[in-house]
């Protein structure tokens, strides 16, 4: 019987025993005169098992502060995120405005270049400005 108790104790301390083996070990320890330390251990475990949960102290809930402080922190976080979003939107608008301005200026430059080309070609016609009719150009006179 002592050998069986020692075998079951080894399995129990190694964490390899089943529930049936633990029940057998407790029964054998109750009938044996040896193993007083182990008997006392299992008796104490039995007493702890029967103890009422109401007598056990529950850990206290630790709050981070009063309720108004939590609400103020959430509100401040919300305001900060809102401000960041608005600043980003303003930045995007300014970026789009700058792009539109650059495109308009490019279009004006293109129009100006084409107008200068057209004006240069018309300078050749400037000499004929004082002539009023085709006869005067070719000096055709009919008498």
UniProtKB/TrEMBL annotation:
Keywords noted in UniProt: Membrane, Transmembrane, Transmembrane helix
Transmembrane intervals: 68-86
Top-rank taxon: Bacteria
Record keyword Membrane present: yes
Protein name per UniProt: Uncharacterized protein
């Amino acid at each position: 019987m002592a050998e069986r108790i020692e075998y079951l104790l080894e399995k129990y301390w190694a964490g390899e025993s089943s529930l049936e083996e633990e029940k057998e070990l407790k029964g054998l320890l109750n009938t044996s005169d040896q193993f007083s330390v182990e008997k006392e251990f299992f008796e104490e475990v039995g007493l702890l098992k029967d103890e009422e949960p109401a007598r056990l102290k529950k850990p206290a809930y630790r709050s981070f502060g009063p309720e108004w402080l939590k609400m103020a922190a959430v509100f401040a976080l919300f305001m900060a995120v809102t401000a960041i979003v608005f600043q980003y939107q303003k930045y995007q608008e300014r970026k789009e405005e700058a792009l539109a301005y650059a495109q308009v200026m490019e279009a004006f430059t293109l129009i100006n270049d084409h107008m200068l080309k057209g004006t240069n070609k018309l300078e050749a016609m400037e000499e004929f400005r004082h002539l009023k009719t085709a006869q005067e150009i070719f000096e055709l006179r009919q008498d």
